[in-house]
Specification:
It is a single chain. This protein is of the alpha/beta class. It is built from 12 helices and 22 strands. The strands form 6 sheets. It has an 8-stranded parallel β-sheet. It starts with a helix and ends with a strand. The structure holds alpha-D-galactopyranose.
Length: 402
């Protein structure tokens, strides 16, 4: 009897843990890639996706760390007579398997979009009641990343619906990053860690630095609004489970200062870096922002500690992010509409991060300072840091002990 009980505990429990879990270790640092939605909306097709994959490689974005090419809403056609989802045949005449193969041949990974409801936000077939069938279809196509939306889900429990798709993905045996997109409505940071690899914390971003767009029944948010909504969430994020403040709008119409600030802040937040612009025709400035390797290194730091707002002085906020090796990233953000002069005396600041239990004490041990957007500028914490920050811009630094 005792042996039977032991066997049951051993096999019973281990089989439960095999079936019901997410695929671990697929996102030890925040995922980096590109998604079609912010720039193209529903206007997706295989030619554009292939050209984007080509551009990801040719521009050096791949070398900078960008990996996933994700098709958002509206790729869908109808289900066939057995219920299997088909791509829109006019827009994806070669089929999804061929497209995934093309993306993989470039050394990149392939992502797709669905919705927990019966229909996606764009009115295409959703996965409700078809979760396992869809997950197996995606796995057969060679999908590496699923963004799973939350439109038309009346009556569903978010945790339940996302867990069902998690289990369906896991049952396929294919490692697929699972990106939860339920806009923070049901506090996914409280339950998402065991369900997915990243979860949206807010409604949709749009390409504006500091504004709100009212669509009647919902709103979309500017970069500053989304930044403010990240308050108090950092303790929930870490390797393999990230807060997602939405995909980037760099290159989609803000000015260069604003794009630089947006990108720097997403790096400080340890946010997924999912570009949302047209990679086939971006300006030199946009590319330089998206591929700044030192800023990306802050985002991709192996500790995976989300940054925090330390304090503000006039229109300038000071954000900090502890990095491995005792380094720190520091970002001075000028939210104001005119340039702002700052002077920051490192030795006068008592910086203690209760969450990560790390301290930045320049009085006790000095740091060398690198300016991540201006590599010629070097200094140390033995002198006060002085700079004039343009409107809607940042100065971003890396402090290295010694
Ligand atoms: C929702 C999501 C967006 C995008 C659209 C597609 O609004 O939040 O990111 O996926 O749906 O319809």
């Amino acid at each position: 009897m005792k042996t039977l009980l032991t066997l049951f505990l051993l096999f019973g429990c281990s089989s439960i843990s095999i079936v019901a879990q997410k695929f671990d270790k697929l996102a030890l640092t925040p995922p980096m890639g590109w998604n079609s939605w912010n720039k193209f909306g529903c206007d997706v097709n295989e030619g554009m996706i292939k050209e984007t994959a080509d551009a990801m490689v040719a521009t050096g974005m791949k070398d900078a760390g960008y990996q996933y090419i994700v098709i958002d809403d509206c790729w869908h056609g109808a289900r066939d007579n057995l219920g299997f989802i088909q791509p829109d045949a006019a827009r994806f005449p070669s089929g999804m398997k061929a497209l995934a193969d093309y993306v993989h041949a470039k050394g990149l990974k392939f992502g797709i979009y669905s919705d927990a409801g019966a229909k996606t936000c764009g009115g295409r077939p959703g996965s409700r009641g078809r979760e396992y069938q869809d997950a197996f279809t995606y796995a057969r196509w060679g999908v590496d990343y699923l963004k799973y939306d939350w439109c038309n889900t009346e009556g569903l429990s978010a945790q339940g619906a996302y867990t069902t798709m998690r289990d369906a993905l896991y049952a396929t045996g294919r490692p697929i990053v699972f990106s939860l997109c339920e806009w923070g409505n049901n506090k996914p940071w409280e339950w998402g860690k065991t369900v997915g690899h990243l979860w949206r914390t807010t409604g949709d971003i749009f390409s504006c630095f500091d504004c709100v767009k009212d669509h009647g029944s919902w709103k979309s948010w500017g970069v500053m609004q989304i930044l403010d909504m990240q308050k108090d969430l950092r303790s929930h994020a870490g390797p393999d489970h990230w807060n997602d403040p939405d995909m980037m709008e760099v290159g989609n119409g803000m000015n260069e200062n604003e794009d630089r600030a947006h990108f720097s802040l997403w790096a400080m937040l340890a946010a997924p870096l999912i570009a949302g612009n047209d990679l086939r025709k971006m300006s030199r400035q946009t590319l330089e922002i998206l591929t700044n390797k030192e800023v990306i290194a802050v985002n991709q730091d192996q500790l995976g500690i989300q940054g925090f707002k330390y304090t503000s002085r006039e229109s300038v906020e000071i954000w900090l992010k502890p990095l491995h090796g005792g380094d720190w990233a520091v970002c001075f953000l000028n939210r104001g509409n005119k340039p702002q002069r700052i002077e920051f005396d490192w030795k006068m600041e008592a910086i203690k991060d209760e969450f990560s239990k790390r301290e930045l004490n320049a009085q006790r041990s000095p740091f060398k300072i690198r300016d991540l957007w201006n590599s010629d500028k070097r200094s140390t914490t033995n002198e006060s840091f002085k700079a004039t920050i343009p409107a809607h811009d940042v100065v971003m630094l890396r402090l290295v002990p010694g």
